[in-house]
Design goal:
By secondary structure, the chain is an alpha+beta fold. It has a single domain, classed as 7,8-Dihydro-6-hydroxymethylpterin-pyrophosphokinase HPPK (Alpha-Beta Plaits). Helices cover 30% and strands 20% of the residues. The chain contains 4 helices and 6 strands. Strands 1, 2, 3, 4, 5 and 6 form a 6-stranded antiparallel sheet that branches. The relative contact order is 0.23.
Amino acid sequence: MPDVFVGAGSNDRAEQHLAQGVALLEDALGPLRCSPVYRNPAVGFDGDDFLNFVIGLQTDVPMAECMRRLRAVEDACGRDRSGPKFSPRTLDFDLLIYGDFVSTDPAIDVPREEILQYPFVLKPLADLAPEARHPVVGRSYAELWAEMAADVPPGALTRVSWSPR
């Protein structure tokens, strides 16, 4: 079974929606592991801070079905898709990694480009799977984080004590 990693985030009643989303996702895909949770400012719009973390699991559910189930959980938690791309979120689940799959279809962003762009994606992924390797660049998430961490401004990413479980 492939190792699957899902980015999770919310800035609208974040603790409530993230806890609900994790419970529903575990029902949909099986046992989960969660990274530590981080608080970070909204990106791309003025809004409340986000809580973000990464969920890890192993599943024999095909990738397209995993993506469908992620979307169904978002919808069950009140996700509104009518607004702009960068806007408040009740729940945002992004399929980051599905085993060693690398998409050649521009409509399917797996592995997610955000892994290499945003500290709030890479840091929790490195916490959860430090020795795992990015399927495109071939470097471990711990190595990638060590490189990115030097450029993260103070206050841009703060670990919080809350957990979705």
